[in-house]
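Trying the structure run again after the queue cleared.
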Amino acid sequence: MSGLLSILFGSAISENKKKGAISLSKIEEFEKQLSDADTWLKSGMENGQEGFGWLRLPYQDVSSLKEQGRWLSGFESIIQIGIGGSALGNRMLNNALLHPFYNDLTPEKRKGPRYYLAENVDPESNNAIWEMVDPDKTALLVISKSGSTAETMANFLFFFNKMQESLDRDETLKRVLVITDPEKGTLRALVNDTGCRSLEVPSGVGGRYSVLSPVGLAAASAVGIDIDDLLAGAREAHSQLSCSSGILDNPAHILSTLTFLHYREGRNINVLMPYTDSLNAFVEWYAQLWAESIGKEGKGSTPVRALGAVDQHSQVQLYTEGPDDKLFTLINVEKRNSVLTIPHPNEGSLSPLGYMGGKDMSQMIGFEARSTASAIAASGKPVIWIDLPDLSAKTLGGLIFFYQYATAMLGYLLSINPFDQPGVEQGKKYTYGLMGRKGFEDNVSEVEKIFSSIESLSTSM
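Done. Tokens:
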């Protein structure tokens, strides 16, 4: 993927692992299967099959989306209300591409509205958000494809009601943007009844694959993220990944095949460890994408979030000397946006730190990444290294699409559907029943029966 990322995987194919050997020849045995997977994805995209809509997102018309983004940008604050795929994507985009303390900047430096994410049904967090905004200068952005996600709708009712206490109903509705299914659901009914602003979640796009749709791009556009560059990076990634070139020239083929082969050898934990604070939320986004797509039918690998160099001081001991049940991927950014030179110590007592003086922090964190990768590999564990030339909207768009594509291909190799989430749906049904939603009454007795087994034994302190 010239210009977007490169993937180095020599440590992950060494024959000298404690468990089964993963060789180049073994990877090349998957050539035909991966070509079939490319064809499967292309066919699903062209035929509009459920779950494949994310493949069309890099080519979408964003004119109406940008119009709503300009409207949002006129407010002092945005409260985005969503959970899972309707929240993690925006946190990831903002973390990667905005100032780390964006909301604290002056309006002149910020050049966009303050952004708040109402995600969990935690009264402390929601009250705290409300205390930070002026209702008259705040927009509510509520996102739920189904229009019935319990946490999202509870939070929406809270903020919608608080807005009406300060304004009236009509003025509140003038400050609401809904992103939901184009035809059905409670939120679509609200749009039809009130005429409030709305955008559509494109058909065939699941929540964890939706960040490059209006779900992620509306707010991103409002806070000044270049969504054209995001989509350009995704288009370039799609162009390179979807061509059936040799397996060793296709990063998605490599990542999915290596993951599959190490999974078969018992390495069913996948650690993703970027060496930049700006990709910390990317790993959160990845964890949902990976877990919900791959974890089903008794199959799957567990995503583990780590951050370099911070987690060198909390997890690497386990990684190097713990069980050989993990596949490690480290992400390095070659060119950083900031250059900070470590000063030479001018106090005699600090002279032992002189070796740092004059070095750049970007150089140091790069050395930290190489050192960790080498330490893990030296312990006989498999390591994949991803190099990003920089962290821009374009390279982030490519990275997002790369992980979506590789995840879908791994689902194909595992013979599972990477686009559904039946385990999540059951939990939703239990919640609906306990909250008294009509039609879900039978779930209450089922939850009570199951939970009684959990509480049958207890202790306390």
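The chain has 18 helices and ten strands. Worth checking whether this holds up in the mutant runs.
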